[in-house]
Structure formats: structure tokens, C-alpha cells
Design a protein that fits this description.
The protein is an all-alpha fold and 238 residues long. It contains 11 helices and no strands. It has one domain: Urease accessory protein UreF, CATH 1.10.4190.10.
Length: 238
């Protein structure tokens, strides 16, 4: 059996860049219902926050956004724009509240704008990236589809692209828990460590998931997200 080739350093760094909370897309301003869960008393401490996010990883992310990222990376690389449209439409129609829909659209637009303004690595090499960005901007884009476009510019295999997306989500949610519960930094790191242990299996499940098994049915999360829209005092936009 041929040994797997190591990921080129440039591609690894690009994925780390995409997963960074410093990426200027506004992800830090969303808690994806976690703040409402704290307000309603579902999350009161580190253990409950850790359980909540682990469940969200497996029951929501691994069955909705992460499979879309995996399929969209392949579609962008194949220039399969009808497939991109189908995936993007699925994300939009499965956002169960206006907050969740706003989040995926706002962060998607912001990521495309960031990607559009990056300098071209090799201007002598023809690229379809400008055309793809223009196509995505007209959809309008959702976060999984926009992230997939950015990740598709690397030489990384699909699995590594999805791992980077999952890590970015996990780090953002751990930081949201630190602020909303609230927790200390060490508690947040323990939550992140638990999520990191669970991410590889969640990503493998997401990659193997066929279209007819993708779903975004999270009733409690949807209820909390809707309640958050009128929550009296809040730090986050979702």
C-alpha cells in the first residue's frame, strides 16, 4: 500500500488560516443558540456546556453543514456549478430560524469578500476563482458553500478541508461558552479538547453521508434560536 503523501506546508497553513477565529467573517458574534440555552437554564456549568456542544457536533454539524462542505469542495474543484446551487439551496431552506439563516448568509458573504481581496498566488496561472466567487455571490452564498470554495483553493484532500471547518466551528463555540455560561479559559480549553477527540469520527461520518440522509432537524435548537430573537439581554447575534 502506498503511503499517504504529506499535506504541503502551504495548504496546511491555508487551512489553519481558514479555521482561525481571527478570520474576518464575524463568526465570533454568533453562539448558534447556546446563549439562549444558557438563558433558559439548559446550560449552567462546564459539564453541561460540553455535553451540549458534543451533541450539537454529532446531531447537527455532522449531519448538515459538514456533509455540505465535503460535497461542495469536490463540486468547486470539478466546476460543477449546478451542484453548488443545489447544495447552497439546501442550506438556505433548512435554516429553521431567521437568526440561523442570517448567520450562514452573513458569514458566507464575508468569507467571499475576504477571498476576493486576497492577492493571487501566481498571476501567470489561469484560475477559475474570480468566476466562482462571482457565481457564489449571486446565489447568495451560505457559509458551508463559501468555506468549501476557499478550502478548494488548497491542495488538501476533502477530509482535511472538512476537519478544518469542524475545528473552526469548535473553537468558536468553545469561546462562546466561555463568554455566555460564563467559564474560565481553562474550562473552555477542556471543552475544546473533548470536541477535538470527537471531530475525526464526526467528519468521517459527514463525508460518507449520502444526500438523502442529510438533515438539519434540531427542534430544541430551533426553538431556542427563535426565543433568542426576542431575548431581553444578549451578547450574541444568534
Amino acid at each position: 500500500m502506498q503511503a499517504a503523501q504529506p499535506l504541503p506546508a502551504t495548504s496546511l497553513l491555508q487551512l489553519m488560516w481558514l479555521a482561525s477565529p481571527a478570520l474576518p467573517v464575524g463568526g465570533f458574534s454568533y453562539s448558534e443558540g447556546l446563549e439562549a440555552a444558557v438563558d433558559q437554564g439548559h446550560i449552567r456549568n462546564e459539564a453541561e456546556a460540553s455535553d451540549w456542544l458534543a451533541d450539537q457536533l454529532h446531531l447537527s454539524q455532522a449531519r448538515s453543514d459538514l456533509p455540505v462542505v465535503a460535497q461542495a469542495v469536490a463540486a468547486w474543484r470539478a466546476h460543477d456549478l449546478p451542484r453548488i446551487t443545489t447544495l447552497n439551496d439546501w442550506v438556505l431552506t433548512t435554516r429553521e430560524t431567521s437568526e440561523l439563516r442570517q448567520q450562514t448568509q452573513q458569514t458566507g458573504r464575508s468569507l467571499l469578500e475576504w477571498l476576493r481581496q486576497l492577492p493571487t498566488v501566481d498571476e501567470t496561472e489561469p484560475t477559475s476563482l474570480p468566476d466562482h466567487i462571482a457565481f457564489a455571490q449571486a446565489l447568495p452564498p451560505t457559509w458551508p458553500v463559501a468555506f468549501a470554495l476557499a478550502a478548494a483553493q488548497t491542495a488538501a484532500p476533502v477530509r482535511e478541508c472538512v476537519l478544518a471547518c469542524a475545528f473552526g466551528w469548535a473553537e468558536n463555540m468553545a469561546q462562546a461558552a466561555i463568554k455566555a455560561v460564563p467559564l474560565g479559559q481553562t474550562g473552555g480549553q477542556r471543552i475544546l479538547a473533548r470536541l477535538l477527540q470527537a471531530i475525526p469520527a464526526a467528519v468521517d461520518s459527514a463525508i460518507a453521508l449520502p444526500d438523502d440522509q442529510r438533515q438539519a432537524f434540531s427542534p430544541m435548537l430551533a426553538i431556542l434560536s427563535a426565543q433568542h430573537e426576542t431575548q431581553y439581554s444578549r451578547l450574541f447575534r444568534s
